[in-house]
Design goal:
14 strands; 5 helices; 2 domains; Diaminopimelate Epimerase, Chain A, domain 1; PhzF family phenazine biosynthesis protein; alpha+beta; 14-stranded mixed beta sheet; single chain; 227 residues; Phenazine_PhzF-like
Length: 227
């Protein structure tokens, strides 16, 4: 069995909640993409990361069903684990920094896959949502086979303070019906609203964002080593 670490990303203030991430530190153990895809499917996490160069921060990201050029919560988790100044992804170079209890990355929202950002009137409506069917389509004008029903449901808890309640439904049909924390969607919502956000997603995961110059966005959260 290939060795891997498990970290929880975007945890609450006492280390609770967070989205589990698998990290294979020795990516050379599974150099082939098909092998990596099969291993990610076997682990069953929302995403699994393979580290190809720990000193330079070169990483490769997979869901149980597809390879991703970029994803938010895997980058935050690996940035904490490797403690490097940047990560190199197929989408681009991701800046990283550690700041006390929070780990931050700087990335571009357009690197993330398209999804529907669906606003609701109240946080209670978001919390009461049922998981939408996999076949649901976005209204963003992207081909259905690219969107596959990805929905990020959100509502203001306190608009003046930038506090958001959210849930993420990847709609991929790969066994992950709901994401506990979705960093890429947080980047996209921040870009749409043009302001810093404090997001509570899933059962209680916390994501922080802050717009930066020239379309970059910082995304931060707490990371804990599970095993």
């Amino acid at each position: 069995m290939t060795d891997y670490d498990v970290v929880r990303v975007f945890c609450g203030p006492r280390g609770e909640y967070g989205n589990e991430l698998g990290v294979v530190r020795e990516g050379s153990a599974l150099p082939d993409r098909d092998e990596r895809q099969a291993f990610a499917a076997k682990l069953g996490f929302s995403e699994t990361v393979f580290v190809d160069d720990p000193e330079r921060g070169v990483i490769d990201i997979y869901t149980p069903g597809v390879r991703l050029p970029f994803a938010g919560y895997p980058c935050v988790g690996v940035a904490w684990l490797l403690d490097v100044p940047e990560l190199v992804t197929p989408a681009g170079v991701v800046g990283t920094r550690l700041d006390g209890e929070f780990t931050w990355i700087e990335a571009r929202p357009e690197w993330a896959r398209a999804r529907t950002l669906r606003q609701y009137a109240t946080a209670a409506e978001v919390e009461a949502l049922a998981v939408p069917p996999t076949g649901e389509r976005s209204e963003l004008g992207v081909p259905p086979d690219e969107v596959r029903g990805r929905v990020y449901a959100w509502a203001w808890e306190d608009e003046a303070a930038g506090r958001v309640r959210a849930r993420g439904f990847p709609g991929r049909g790969d066994g992950v019906d709901e994401d506990e924390a979705t960093g890429a969607a947080a980047l996209q919502l921040t870009a749409q609203l043009g302001r810093a956000l404090n997001i509570i997603q899933g059962t209680g995961s916390q994501l922080l964002t802050a717009p930066q110059p020239e379309g970059w966005i910082e995304l931060g959260g707490r990371v804990f080593l599970e095993r």
